[in-house]
Backbone:
């Protein structure tokens, strides 16, 4: 949460949009990340930091009951193979592989009523309409630019580090990065075409939301 009635919804600390708007904040903010990168990030998070409720019961990497596939490609394929056939409501740690459901994650957050909601299918048009109801949309890949636009739109001034014509001032921006306890070096582009195609398949709605978000963020 930000001061002066602002609220932020950042990945991976998600809340359903309805939970944010129900609080009657003056301004809502969403930061979007490229869906392909986000799916890879979730995979690594699930491998290295499974749900703490599971760990408390002794279910973790190398322990009985932790049935996560060994590779990113196998994990993606398994999710597509076991795509939920109907909507369900359950905590993340009770869903497939006891971890975050990676299928159209952002669209789900835009449309869910509770973080335990999981949809067999989401309506991309409905997700886009929900995104367009948010006061400000930023793009993680352009975090600095998004930060400057947010400040300009809400505080009506620009910090000195937002002067892109002054390289020294622009580079003085001290961006905070949170790794959430896990790091990885591989990139989504490192994976074979067939894996990327399957990730695209599980993020079709999110891709449309992201594309819309980049247009909204530019003010087009």
Residues:
């Amino acid at each position: 949460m930000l001061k002066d009635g602002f609220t932020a919804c950042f990945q991976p600390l998600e809340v359903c949009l309805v939970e944010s708007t129900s609080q009657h904040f003056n301004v809502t903010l969403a930061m979007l990340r490229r869906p392909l990168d986000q799916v890879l990030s979730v995979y690594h998070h699930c491998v290295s930091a499974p749900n703490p409720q599971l760990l408390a019961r002794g279910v973790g990497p190398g322990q009985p009951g932790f049935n996560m596939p060994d590779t990113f490609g196998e994990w993606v394929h398994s999710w597509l193979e076991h795509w939920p056939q109907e909507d369900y409501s359950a905590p993340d740690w009770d869903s497939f592989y006891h971890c975050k459901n990676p299928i159209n994650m952002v669209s789900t957050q835009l449309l869910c009523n509770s973080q335990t909601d999981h949809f067999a299918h989401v309506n991309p048009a409905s997700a886009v309409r929900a995104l367009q109801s948010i006061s400000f949309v930023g793009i993680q890949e352009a975090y600095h630019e998004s930060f400057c636009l947010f400040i300009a739109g809400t505080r009506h001034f620009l910090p000195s580090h937002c002067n892109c014509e002054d390289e020294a001032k622009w580079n003085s921006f001290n961006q905070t990065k949170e790794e959430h306890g896990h790091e990885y070096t591989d990139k989504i582009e490192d994976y074979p075409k067939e894996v990327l195609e399957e990730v695209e398949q599980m993020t079709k709605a999110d891709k449309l939301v992201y594309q819309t978000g980049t247009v909204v963020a530019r003010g087009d």
Remarks:
- The two ends are 27 Å apart (CA to CA).
